[in-house]
Specification:
17% strand; two-stranded antiparallel sheet; alpha+beta
């Protein structure tokens, strides 16, 4: 346990984690959780772009007249 002084001159206890205190953390881009949480929506956006590209590159051929209609 390490001791620190707050602005009100009270002592507070801070748990240490290795050489860093719990108050000192890594920047968000160095943590794995934001990247893991952002990967799902990012993957969906890439898949949407690929789907739009495939749909525009390979359009369906129009139905020609004379096709027999099956069913109702």
């Amino acid at each position: 346990m390490a001791l620190c002084r707050t602005d009100r001159e009270h002592l507070c206890e801070v748990q240490t984690k290795g050489s860093k205190t719990m108050q000192e953390g890594n920047p968000w881009w160095k943590e794995p959780w934001p990247w893991l949480l952002m990967s799902g929506p990012l993957l969906a956006m890439v898949a949407c772009g690929v789907t739009i590209w495939l749909a525009s590159a390979n359009p369906d051929r129009p139905v020609v007249d004379g096709v027999a209609r099956m069913g109702w």
